[in-house]
Write a structure and sequence with these properties.
- Keywords: Membrane, Transmembrane, Transmembrane helix.
- This is DoxX family protein.
- It comes from Larkinella punicea.
- It is a single chain.
- Helix content is 48%, strand content 18%.
- The chain is of the alpha+beta class.
- It folds into three domains: 109 residues, no CATH class; 190 residues; 105 residues, Calycin beta-barrel core domain (Lipocalin, Beta Barrel).
- The strands form two sheets. Strands 3-5-6-7-8-9-10-11 form an eight-stranded antiparallel β-barrel.
- The longest helix has 33 residues.
- The chain starts with a strand and ends in a 13-residue tail after the last helix.
Length: 432
């Protein structure tokens, strides 16, 4: 007969205090999950966020005496002042809850039931999160292939995050490798028998993500670190067994995976509900991946006039400007990029400065409008002509100034990063 071990019936006081803290902390951190995954829960999540949007600035201003007001709320950066202060609030509230809980419930022998419930919550939260990131890599929407603007940007002008995004975006195979690691690790967390293996995989996968975020200054440091903390917490229930097997070469009894005896009807209902829930998550991730890849993936339709153009002639208010490297008004190159549903145009000036614009085209009237997304009041209104497939002429006005530009299309395939490809045999290293 195989031997099984269950959760201990008598916990040490330090174990109980630690559990109370992490129970409160993780509930605060993941809430409103799982309710946020229920269709129609937007009102709940938005109301919950509004509470923190009011509380966090007050804490920063009144309790922490920050030298500036918190006005930037969570956005593409997860390491804003708001996020740090909110994390501080989570820790303080969890610590206070643990102390009060310890006073009111000091005689309880263990929290085996609550531990089991917390582990289920964290397993599903982490699994769904890993699915989100994993499928974004499999469908290659998180890290698209370097854009024309990125290809034209000197290494030295790239931010550390931009360099990491370029590195990841170059290789579809590496996106699949990392994405499948996240998906497989997350999928294993859905099942009790494979939870330990899934947590081990995710400790390695998320640990690498945390290292990249810190080493390349990617502003997801707080979130990724908390995901790693969750994976480590899940793994602690198997910690002693893993130490016995991996370090001290001792036998490890099997973990009792059915600590709660339930009726057959309950077990069948749980299996049906779990199957439907996992299927719903998978369908949502795959469907979203297909739709997003179709609009913004590497194979998404490109906008009209897509390409890299060299400026041959540039006239401002009727005066043709010579290509002087110190000129801040003359265009040097034009890059039309983005996607058909989200086109953009980048202008490189003679002094190598760059300006990015939204690019609206009316191909029937051969008209274009350029404007900075942060300043829609000032716009270029241009007409364009294409004498041939490699030539483009644009003319029009920017407020009171008239411009005329003649452009020559360049071959994007000239870039080594684009044309190098993969080679089984390399007689000499191609390190440029």
């Amino acid at each position: 007969m195989p031997q099984f071990i269950s959760y201990p019936l008598q916990w040490h006081p330090a174990q109980k205090l630690t559990f109370r803290f992490f129970f409160a902390y993780f509930l605060l951190y993941v809430f409103p999950f799982p309710l946020s995954n229920v269709p129609g829960s937007y009102f709940l999540t938005s109301s919950y966020n509004e509470v923190w949007h009011a509380l966090v600035p007050w804490v920063g201003r009144t309790l922490l005496h920050l030298p500036y007001e918190i006005t930037v709320f969570p956005n593409g950066s997860g390491d804003t002042t708001f996020n740090y202060v909110q994390l501080f609030c989570f820790v303080v509230l969890a610590f206070a809850a643990a102390l009060v809980w310890s006073v009111l419930d000091r005689k309880r022998a263990n929290y085996n039931t609550l531990l089991y419930g917390l582990l289920v919550l964290l397993r599903y939260y982490l699994a769904i999160t890993m699915f989100t990131y994993g499928f974004a890599k499999v469908f290659k929407t998180q890290f698209p292939f370097p854009s024309i603007t990125r290809l034209m940007e000197p290494y030295g002008q790239s931010s550390p995050m931009g360099l990491a995004w370029t590195f990841m975006g170059y290789s579809t195979a590496y996106n699949w490798f990392t994405g499948l690691g996240e998906i497989i690790g997350g999928a294993l967390l859905f099942f009790r028998k494979t939870t330990a293996l899934g947590a081990i995989i995710l400790v390695a996968v998320i640990g690498n993500i945390v290292a990249i975020n810190f080493c390349f200054d990617i502003p997801v440091k707080l979130y990724s670190s908390n995901l790693l903390l969750m994976a480590l917490f899940i793994l602690t229930t198997d910690g002693l067994r893993l130490i016995n097997v991996l370090l001290v070469n001792r036998p490890a009894p099997a973990l009792d995976l059915t600590p709660f005896r339930t009726s057959r009807r309950w077990r069948i209902g749980r299996i049906v509900f779990k199957t439907l829930a996992i299927s719903f998550v998978l369908y949502g991730q795959i469907y979203s991946g297909f739709i997003t890849a179709k609009q913004y993936g590497d194979q998404a339709p490109k906008p009209p006039l897509y390409g890299l153009y060299q400026v041959e002639t540039f006239a401002l208010n009727g005066d043709t400007l010579a290509p002087m490297l110190t000129d801040t008004a003359r265009w040097r190159q034009v890059m039309v990029g983005g996607y058909k549903s989200y086109p953009n145009l980048t202008i490189r000036y003679m002094n190598d400065s760059l300006r990015n614009y939204a690019f609206e085209l009316d191909t029937a009237k051969r008209q274009a409008v350029l404007y900075a997304r942060s300043d829609t009041a000032h716009k270029y209104r241009l007409t364009y002509q294409q004498p041939d497939t490699n030539s483009l002429m644009m003319a029009g006005f920017n407020q009171i100034d008239s411009i005329y530009v003649r452009l020559k299309k360049q071959d994007i395939g000239q870039f080594l990063l684009v044309n190098r490809g993969f080679h089984w045999i390399n007689e000499y290293p191609m390190n440029r």
